[in-house]
UniProtKB/TrEMBL annotation:
This is PA domain-containing protein. Its main location: secreted. It comes from Trifolium subterraneum (Subterranean clover). Belongs to the peptidase S8 family. Residues 18-97 form the PA domain.
Amino acid sequence: MYPLISGADAKYDNASSKDALNCTGGTLDPRKAKGKILICLHSQEDCPFLCRTHKGVEATRVGAVGMILANDENSGSGIQADPHVLPSSYVNFIDGSYIFNYINHTKSPVAYISKVVTEIATKPAPFIAFFSARGPNPVEPTILKVYSSFIR
């Protein structure tokens, strides 16, 4: 378990709360974030494409041990798979709201990010990235994805 902190709570004194909550480069104080899991807000308007991974780079720069990226209300439940440089989890708006509520109403909030575990036949099935092929393979269920881009 690691202490959990929002970007706004880890900001430099002279940084704006909005920029720090979005984990914008140069806004986070390493003395406040080091050794903690950092939760950053993702906004489609402020960060339409690649800057999701930049938030992870910023979290690493300040010594965070992990990052949770939470969608804002306008971004809703659309999440995408991104490569990150530290253990990370990307959550939708509702789940992010629960996490922020936990941080704001708990004296010493803690969390952990576990290694990825493949779960087969879970009901209901978890969300998958919008661009992902669907699976598992109907012939061999241990093959998770089926690609149908072959030539006939």
